[in-house]
Design brief:
This protein has 321 residues and is of the alpha/beta class. The chain has seven helices and 18 strands. Helices cover 18% and strands 29% of the residues. The longest helix is centred in the middle third of the chain and has 14 residues. It starts with a strand and ends with a strand. The model has no long low-confidence stretch (mean pLDDT 92). InterPro entries: 2Fe-2S_ferredoxin-like_sf, 2Fe-2S_ferredoxin-type, 2Fe2S_fd_BS, Beta-grasp_dom_sf, FAD-bd_FR_type, FNR_nucleotide-bd, MRET, OxRdtase_FAD/NAD-bd. Keywords: 2Fe-2S, Flavoprotein, Iron, Iron-sulfur, Metal-binding, Oxidoreductase. One of its GO terms (molecular function) is metal ion binding.
Length: 321
């Protein structure tokens, strides 16, 4: 982890703050590309992931924008409580949501705070001279972070705003109309609330959008049709040692590993962030995450240990640990 200082704190919208982070000695931070995020270890010890919301104009700084979530489990509330001068620790940038190609025509769909990973994508595509269209959906202009900045950006002519209220750009987005115009020739990138992403993915499937051109990043897990009372016990095998561990019905694989002093990093505990992604050697998996694609789930080569389980009672999953 890299020790950084909060160098600036800006209120970007009614419940969104932007933090500028940098080293105390003013030296460069590791570089990144659009779509990347950093893990942040907050003073309380909480570990959270936040998208880097702007490309680096200066290699000494990272910028994140964080929505204060009413259902916060503590992370966003603590971020909003940080002050200039406070110290936090961050990982090197990770990217599970990259641009497939800087030269491929793209459709960017942002819902609320989902603007954060898509804004650097727009910057990248604009610099490359690549055609793209950018739609930003929100409740109102006052809650939409960066809306004023985006109206003045070099790619302002590619921006489309959709607000539920307010005199300017009122009305919800017509996803069918917007998406149907780009099925044949564009990559789709979507980020925002779970319900918004699910709606976009449903429209993409109905329109016949090829799965390898649909890219999404969830910030929180959508409601899933899973009854935890139906959870069954199973086992995991550690390939490197041959050790077999029991996983109780009320346990996750991550919990069982931790009980046995086997370290796999965990953060969201909802199958969203990919922190606990672990390779699988064998075993049938009941995937309960939103991180892996449909193809990746069918391949059965990886598992999110915080939420996914063996498909059958008494089953065995061998982990590449």
């Amino acid at each position: 982890m890299i020790e950084v200082v909060v160098l600036n704190k800006v209120q970007e919208a009614s419940a969104v703050v932007r933090l500028v982070l940098g080293k105390a000695n003013d030296t460069p931070l590791p570089s990144f590309e659009a779509g990347a995020h950093i893990d942040i270890k907050l003073p309380s010890g909480l570990l959270r992931q936040y998208s880097l919301c702007r490309l680096q104009s200066d290699p000494r700084y990272y910028e994140i924008a964080v929505l204060k979530d009413p259902q916060s489990r503590g992370g966003s509330e603590e971020v909003h409580g940080l002050s200039i001068g406070d110290v936090v620790h961050v990982s090197e940038p990770k990217n599970h949501f990259p641009l497939r190609s800087k030269e491929a025509k793209s459709l960017l769909l942002a819902g609320g705070i989902g603007i954060t990973p898509l804004l650097p994508m727009a910057q990248t595509l604009q610099c490359a001279g690549t055609p793209f269209e950018f739609h930003y959906c929100g409740r109102s202009p006052s809650t939409a972070a960066f809306s004023d900045v985006l109206k003045q950006a070099s790619f302002a002519d590619k921006m489309h705003f959709h607000f539920d209220s307010g005199a300017q750009n009122p009305g919800r987005i017509d996803l069918h109309k917007v998406m149907s115009e780009h099925v044949a020739d564009a990559d789709l990138y979507v980020c925002g609330p779970a319900g918004f992403i699910e709606s976009v993915l449903e429209h993409a499937a109905a329109l016949g959008w090829p799965e390898d051109r649909v890219h999404r990043e969830f910030f929180a897990a959508p409601a899933m049709d899973v009854n935890v009372e139906d959870n069954h016990a199973f086992q995991v095998k550690i390939a490197g040692t041959g050790q077999v561990l029991d996983v109780a019905p009320n346990q996750s694989i991550s919990d069982a590993l931790e009980e046995n002093a086997i370290f796999v990093p965990v953060s969201c505990e909802e199958g969203v962030c990919g922190t606990c992604l672990t390779n699988v050697i064998s075993g049938e998996i009941e995937h309960r995450d939103v991180f892996l694609s449909k193809k990746e789930r069918e391949e059965g080569k990886q598992i999110l240990t915080c939420c996914s389980r063996a498909k059958n009672a008494g089953g065995l999953i061998e982990l590449d640990l």
